[in-house]
Q: What sequence folds into this?
């Protein structure tokens, strides 16, 4: 085993034990992903990669994803699925919840890749290629694509924050933006103030400081939806 991989696994197990996580050991598929896919693809550089990463779902609960890569503006989720991981062993309601969770992650600004354990074992080069393409796509948008309006990072952030607000009754707090984008509260406040100055959000204060921001036309949009009185 490469020394960098050994340190990555040791760090994960120590951190998981300290936090009292249910899973404090990586499974067979996760270890295979590290040795056959990520390690060879990135010369055993694991900086920015995290295993069993906790994320809040659309219901406010905590879920864990197999791997995330967060570096230089890249927000990539990677899940390794066995043949019996999902649809065959869960109820229709749980399956609906599973799909809603995936949609919510994408709308929160994550790029999601899913691989089967068979692909990791037998088609590792394909997995490596898709991961590199995903990371390259993010870097192109965040660093080199500013001449295109669609690739403007501020426009992307605004669209995602508006979607987040729509999922929470038309209002959004700085702490929610910070959690979704993995930035500091102060950075989230700067973003929200900018979008408020552009008329996209309305600040709501308690007389001393802004508590949250609302979408200007959210209530009107809801009232005009079919089926509403």
A:
């Amino acid at each position: 085993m490469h020394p960098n991989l050994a340190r990555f696994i040791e760090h994960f197990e120590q951190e998981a034990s300290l936090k009292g996580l249910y899973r404090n050991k990586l499974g067979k598929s996760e270890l295979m992903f590290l040795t056959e896919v990520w390690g060879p693809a990135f010369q055993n550089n694991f900086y920015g990669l995290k295993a069993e990463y906790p994320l809040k779902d659309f219901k406010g609960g905590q879920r864990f994803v197999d791997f995330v890569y967060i570096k230089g503006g890249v927000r990539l989720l990677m899940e390794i699925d066995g043949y019996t991981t999902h649809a065959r062993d869960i109820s229709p309601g749980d399956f609906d919840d599973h799909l809603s969770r995936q949609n919510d992650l994408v709308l929160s600004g994550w790029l999601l890749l899913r691989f089967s354990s068979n692909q990791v074992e037998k088609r590792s080069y394909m997995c490596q290629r898709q991961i590199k393409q995903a990371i390259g796509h993010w870097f192109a948008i965040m660093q080199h694509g500013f001449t295109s309006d669609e690739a403007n990072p501020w426009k992307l952030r605004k669209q995602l924050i508006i979607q987040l607000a729509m999922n929470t009754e038309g209002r959004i707090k700085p702490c929610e933006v910070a959690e979704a984008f993995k930035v500091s509260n102060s950075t989230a406040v700067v973003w929200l103030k900018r979008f408020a100055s552009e008329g996209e959000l309305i600040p709501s204060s308690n007389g001393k400081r802004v508590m949250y921001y609302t979408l200007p036309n959210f209530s009107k949009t809801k009232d005009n939806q079919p089926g509403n009185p």
Remarks:
- The two ends are 64 Å apart (CA to CA).
- Residues 145-151, 220-229 have pLDDT under 50 and may be disordered.
- The domain at 3-144 is CATH 3.40.960.10 (Endonuclease; Chain A).
- Strands lie at 49-56, 62-71, 74-81, 111-116, 171-172, 202-205, 210-214.
